[in-house]
Amino acid sequence: RSKKNMSQMNQTWITEFLLLGLSDDSQTQLLLFVLFLVIYLVTVLGNLLLITLVLTDSQLHTPMYFFLCNLSTADLFFSTTIVPQALFNLSRRKVISFIGCAAQILLFLLFGCTECALLAVMSYDRYLAICDPMHYPLIMTWRVCGYMALGCWTTGILVSLVDTTFTLRLPYQGDNRIAHFFCEPPAMLALASADIHSAETALFLMGVVILLAPLSLILVSYGSILMTVIRMKTTSGRLKAFSTCGSHLLVVILFYGSGIISYMTPKSAKLLGKLVSMFYSVITPMLNPLIYSLKNKDVKKALRVVSIKRLFVKL
């Protein structure tokens, strides 16, 4: 018993973690570096462009684009929390300090959970606009929109604090190799030196709060929208409704689908977990501005107006 106690005392708290990443092959790492860099640049430019268009074009000063601006902001910081560190690890040592890992978990969860809440609010906004257009301006006032956006960010903060606390309160005194390309709670828990049941339960319950509950609201909203669209007499009305909601629904499928696989099925295969995490944390933030800009006539019109104005300024 004394030898066992001595060995436990000799185990020191881990001060840094080794991120194993997606591959050990140098050529594969080079390809991943180029891929991640291109994706990150497109993500930053796309989301900054969308934010700029919403802020500068008065035609986009509506509740839908107000929430879209919040979504692009969350996407921008969400990607910045993960990709630059991943690029650094691909080009140099795959090491991150314990404090750096803790900060990454907190910020990653904050912006990711905020995005979950924003997508649910955006579905409610579309539900009111299509199913109750007469009362839409009375309900979705700027004050209400502000409160809803604030509620989304507050929810993100609270859920991220709970998940981060339950993840980091555990002792990490053994293996410091994280089988991932960033510090994600499920991958971190695999290294804990104590029972992780309570932490896994907390993550699952927070997943219910921030994934399943908003997804339920989204499904109800789009179910009502679908019934309303079916009852529309004109084909143009149906096409307009589908074009308005199609881009949002595509984002929801991509983001929630990959998020639920990662957090609601924590015992999935390691490789599958990495690929799914890469999809919702790296690829989806890049796709969001592309999906909204390519499928939205108002955004494309605003882009043309801004381009023409800048052309005239140069002339």
Automatic annotation (TrEMBL):
GO terms for cellular component: plasma membrane. GO terms for molecular function: G protein-coupled receptor activity; olfactory receptor activity. Residues 46-292 form the G-protein coupled receptors family 1 profile domain. It comes from the Eukaryota. The keyword Transmembrane helix applies. GO terms for biological process: detection of chemical stimulus involved in sensory perception of smell. The keyword Transmembrane applies. It is found in: Cell membrane. It is a multi-pass membrane protein. It holds the Pfam family 7tm_4. InterPro entries: GPCR_Rhodpsn, GPCR_Rhodpsn_7TM, Olfact_rcpt. The chain crosses the membrane at residues 30-52, 64-83, 95-121, 141-166, 202-229, 241-263, 275-294. Keywords: Cell membrane, G-protein coupled receptor, Membrane, Olfaction, Receptor, Sensory transduction, Transducer, Transmembrane, Transmembrane helix. Its main location: membrane. Belongs to the G-protein coupled receptor 1 family. PANTHER family: OLFACTORY RECEPTOR. This is Olfactory receptor. It comes from Monodelphis domestica. The gene is LOC100010459.
